[in-house]
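Homework help board

Subject: predicted structure for assignment chain

Our instructor gave us this sequence and asked us to write out the predicted structure in token form, then describe one feature. I got the tokens but I'm not sure how to describe them. Can anyone check?
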Amino acid sequence: MSNATSAHTIRPDEAAHFGKLAADWWNPKGSSAMLHKLNPVRLGFIRDALDAHFATDSRGLKPLTSRRALDVGCGAGLLCEPLARLGGNVTGVDAAQENIAAACLHAEGSGLAIDYRCGDVAELGLTGYDLVTSMEVIEHVADKVAFVSALEAALADGGLMILSTPNRTPQSRLLLVEGAEALGMVPKGTHHWDDFITPVELHDLLSAAGLTMGNPMGIAWTPSRGLHLSDNLALNYIVTAKRG
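My token output:
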């Protein structure tokens, strides 16, 4: 596990903010409660995308068997652990040492062998991953171009990338920033609306890195359904990307 702390794409203040949440990350009713609600929605999309991309059997329990997966901005491992249970050989990278320590401890308690590393993905030299994921991270980085380039460099030929991020819309400002933080649904200072990225902007970033973006799927919220996949991209969206 590397202790690199260089700040090529990392914003130190962002790393410090999320590092302070590390001890509570796995508490489904704590400061990361929204991530616990979001994770099953993400996983549903990821599973469908894996089956479509790698032609795996949707009834199989381990579509990532014999495949390497990288989660960038992994926090305390909320996505890494399900990816490992899907059969993947998983690496998790995060900028906050506190998160990596919490992730290692939780994985050990869960009997999962996950390679956690603290540092900047742009400087760790990671390559050859069949699946590269980064969930709600690109809006927090210092250099989006360098970040996407680092994700692309980590991707194996024929691999699949999956990203999710809030959209920069009036609705997301009202609900994800002003509303969610005021109501205590997410810790204050988590979101900076000006750093949110639209689907068109993400498409252009990916294209510049030699990647083709799939059709984005929205992650919406309603009182009756909670968080769910939707055609409505106004709040948050998740996309695939691949070379060519």
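Reply (TA_rk): Your tokens look well-formed. For the description, you could write something like this. The chain has one domain: 12-243. That's the kind of observation they're looking for.
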